Amino acid sequence: MRRVSRLALAGAATTSLALALTACGGTSTSASSEADGNQGLAIAYDVGGKGDQSFNDAAYAGLEQAEKEFGYETTDVEPTEGETDADKTQRLVSLAKQGYNPVVGVGYAYATAVKEAAEKYPDTTFGIVDDSTIEAENVADLVFSEEQASYLAGVAAAKSTKTNTVGFVGGVDIPLIHKFEAGFKQGVADTNPKVKVLSQYLTQTAEEGGFSSPDKGKTAAESQIEKKADVVYQAAGLSGQGVIEAAAANKVWAIGVDSDQYKQEALAKYKNHILTSATKDVAKAVYNLAKSVEDGKPETGIVRGDLKAGQVGLADSNPEFKNNTELQEAITTAKEKIISGEIKVKTS
């Protein structure tokens, strides 16, 4: 097997590395006392960590699938409050040094860390979710056409509103989240130009809690609902839970993001007010990277998930959404036009 020849570390060295790893973020799967040459996928979470009901949890689902299928050791590491790029780099270097391969940073904030760690460990494959700026032979940039799924969310919102006012709540005012807003607004306008879109970003930087503060999300959504928004789409990580809570409390629709939030246990009491979710299959992207390494043909460069590949789209778990024939026809038509190129979705 490929991993038999993997770097084998002495027990004492591995123990010290595990301690170093703990110092820059806790793990939910402990490193073994002795590296057995069979380490596999490792992921390092972005702000919000595991339990965000969003893309961190989706990355973990990909890790679980790889662990089950390939029968090797995996690990996942939580972020720490106020950490620096140097902390992130240390985390990734520690994982690579222990023999994990691939090593994935979940979120654009890992760009500097992935680049530096990849230079130190050229024989290890690194992945980064939601960043397309790293050009290295051993790095896979796992990116998605979020604007395409957001366009479909805009169609759904425009067809579902009764007040002709809908809302968008972005976690942090950055280009990645601009893609969600741009696609959503275009989908709304193309479906019904009479519908007004209210937009708000929670913070200017991630460090201010835009992706990790449900209270901020709740306040923003309540403000939009007071202005008659009866469908609110959120792209705000953990903060999005507050948006969904506000929508449920006011008996309007929320549209989730990244994962199918209707099906998530932590949001179960709000699910009847989650119309749909604009999904991106981070789990599949993470798993595919692990499989490519396992097969001896590691993915590198930009690896994009889009509508055509089936890696972005709209969840249909809510029966009220799924069984609305007029709505489903509109979404199907829009999807076909995006895939064919007839509709070109804006990213900003």
From TrEMBL:
It is found in: Cell membrane. It holds the Pfam family Bmp. One of its GO terms (cellular component) is plasma membrane. It is a lipid-anchor. PROSITE patterns: PROKAR_LIPOPROTEIN. Gene3D superfamilies: 3.40.50.2300. Keywords: Cell membrane, Lipoprotein, Membrane, Signal. Residues 46-347 form the ABC transporter substrate-binding protein PnrA-like domain. InterPro entries: BMP_lipoprotein, Peripla_BP_I, PnrA-like. Residues 1-20 form the signal peptide. Belongs to the BMP lipoprotein family. This is BMP family ABC transporter substrate-binding protein. The lineage of its organism: Bacteria, Bacillati, Actinomycetota, Actinomycetes, Kitasatosporales.
